[in-house]
Amino acid sequence: MARKPTGRRSTIYDIATAAETSASTVSLVLNGSWERYRIKKETAERILNTAKAKGYNTNLQARGLRLSRSSLVGMIIPHYRNRFFAGLAECFEAEARARGLTPIVVSTQRDAKTERSVVETMIAQQVECLIIAGVDDPDPLNVLCERATILCVNLDLPGEGAASVVTDNRAGAIELTTRLVSLVNGAGGDPARIRFVGGRQGEFATEERVAGFLAGLEQAGISAPKAEIERCGYRPGAARQAFERIAGEGPFPPGVFVNSITALEGFTAFLGSHRLAPPPVIACFDWDPFAAALPLPVIMLRQNVEALIAQSFAVVDSGVSERGRRIVVPPTLAVSPAVEADGEEAPSPPPGTNRKARKVDRDG
Amino acid sequence: MARKPTGRRSTIYDIATAAETSASTVSLVLNGSWERYRIKKETAERILNTAKAKGYNTNLQARGLRLSRSSLVGMIIPHYRNRFFAGLAECFEAEARARGLTPIVVSTQRDAKTERSVVETMIAQQVECLIIAGVDDPDPLNVLCERATILCVNLDLPGEGAASVVTDNRAGAIELTTRLVSLVNGAGGDPARIRFVGGRQGEFATEERVAGFLAGLEQAGISAPKAEIERCGYRPGAARQAFERIAGEGPFPPGVFVNSITALEGFTAFLGSHRLAPPPVIACFDWDPFAAALPLPVIMLRQNVEALIAQSFAVVDSGVSERGRRIVVPPTLAVSPAVEADGEEAPSPPPGTNRKARKVDRDG
DNA sequence: CGAGATTGCTAAATGGATTTAGCGTCCTGA
DNA sequence: TCAGGACGCTAAATCCATTTAGCAATCTCG
How far is A81 from chain B (nearest CA, A)? Predict the structure, then answer.
């Protein structure tokens, strides 16, 4: 079967010509199934050698078209600008690569139109599955996937259109609050004055964390906290203003439950213009190495990105994403040096994004 | 031309059958070139309607195979865990989407084997171009691309196998050093005691920044700084140790040139156990909002990720990536609130990753 | 009235890899 | 001697979209 040699990239036909055999044989050999088809060892070797000599590279588009499997897997996230999403992206890639798949991660900046168009593009690229993280409303995206018979999983957000893998926000918040109360007590503060700052009203994660915060206080015997829950959003600036307001109300609270790293960023900015002595104990539902190194007593909760991704792939592997199914993953506690120094408790295990990455000399 | 209706996803053949026309007509209509081929308006509308009704989605693998253009564009970066790489990834995606291309960003954890295999996978997926950022040795990757006739660009690293887009490390370091000296002088410190910490010996960016640092000092009349350049690597822990060592040598220097955000992370950790009064002035060759909000006088240099990406795409658009060509992009200065408060200078423009993202309520 | 133009559309080739049915030759055993 | 098997390989169909050459029917105008 003669075909003219293609412009530059070599194809199985080119190799067939060069090795004086047929394209079918080349394909069989390159896929390793040549023994099953009784191709002579020397023929196989000849083919392998010419393929190597020509720098042959499989055209995965052609293979994908033939086999209706692209070996592409997709994930959408809002952005990469915090450790949680960065970790999700890296874990997802590692997991995909381990399975011989090509990961496509796209950040959608929390824009519903972008989310939709990215999902459509991914479907058009024939991704084999799609993991959806951090969107406001996953339902229409789940519908898109379903119509295209693409398995999808909602990550860290509940949704009724597919299975969801979520962090155990409530239990995490309870644990964090319990630790916070104990540290405040240890420092001689009044735990009833602890405040909650950050997050969005009505948002799933925020409301779960508020519920856990209140439950944690109640378990510590504080059934009616003295002040409002400040769901001031996720912008550092808004959080800073909230802290300014709180500071204006009287003596600064002895402890604060900070919901999200950006709210903590706002607190750091606030600290720039206020010297608080003694510094309040900070419990943050999020993790960042920079924040963990602050000269403040900080306890942080790190979402278990490895487990979240592993569970998502488990759903994909199972072949079904049951609507409304909820898979819950507990977060892990991280304690700042300032807290460790007090000798209160043993340090938590290192919260690296993944093992391999830890060994590397990280750079700026 | 009869074809059996495919399992689930509809193809142009399904639509042709449903709209009682041919696949060619469907293709022509769907691509908008139907007027050129004198397809009746009503036929076109009929086709468009059935396509919409069936939720048709182009199979980009098939199109890519036919046209030998995949509409995929690739980029590799070491990781997403700092603002620079996160920003590169987001800008790259935005730029790709604006051109109707599908971005594939993959993090390779600075592992040469991973880098190689990722590049091979991307080539197999037929990416139309590849941007290589933050690898140790781009040359073999450039060779791989060249053999596959894929245009590639080295980003923020010099390389002889393709064109390179790099930050102007030296000029940036000079500017940063000049500012640092002036702030130290303003605070009554001795600028000759300023130290340089962080980075890797022999690495392109580090050596350029060291040269800029020394040139900046010299311009300020300090030709022989009193102490060593501490190229202690990029790990926070190593930087922390370097700071401990420096603190052990006598009074802490009045200013430090910190090379990279991770070294600054090490400084923050160091600060946890040392109360320095007055705090030293920090000049950091990197940018991070958290660090910028620290209760310290910090000036930071932010690499211009938008321009770096724009220049990389410009090379791609030009159709040639001249070996060894160097395109230099200046970084921009960012000043911390603690410095602004001193009224020294007007604040620099907001260093957001991109305009759209700034409007959004960022989350944790 | 008939050559030539116009209209509206379609058949068929193409891109590269996969995979099955099957072809020709030689060998074995009854 | 001949049916049946082993051996070593290949032709051809298939996946889906694109695009060109060209067909049949109708219209135009000298």
Answer: 6
- The arithmetic mean of pLDDT across residues B8-37, rounded, is 92
pLDDT digits (tens, 9 = 90+) for B68-78: 999 999 999 99
Choosing among A61, A84, A115, which should be mutated to test the B contact, i.e. which has the most B CBs within 10 A?
A61
B337 and A123 within 8 Å at the Cβ level: the answer is no
Share of chain A above pLDDT 70, in %: 90
**Confidence band (pLDDT; 50, 70, 90) for B346?**
very low
Number of residues that this document lists for chain B: 364
**What pLDDT score does B33 carry?**
86
Judge whether residue B11 contacts strand C, using its CB and a 7 Å cut-off: no
Tell which A residues from 84 to 143 touch B, by Cβ distance under 8 Å.
84-87, 89-90, 93, 97, 102-107, 109-111, 114, 117-118, 120-126, 134
Is the four-CA dihedral B251, B253, B254, B258 of positive or negative sign? negative
> How much is the pTM?
0.90
Residue A319, pLDDT above cutoff 80: yes
Beta bridge partners of A282: A256, A298
Backbone angles phi, psi at A255, to 5 degrees: -155, 150
Residues 48-87 of chain B sitting with CB below 7 angstroms of strand D: 56, 58-59, 62-63, 65-67
Where does residue B329 fall: left (phi above 0), alpha (psi -120 to 50 degrees), or beta otherwise? beta
Amino acid, single-letter form, for residue A180 = L
C-alpha to C-alpha distance for A35 and A290, rounded to whole angstroms: 56
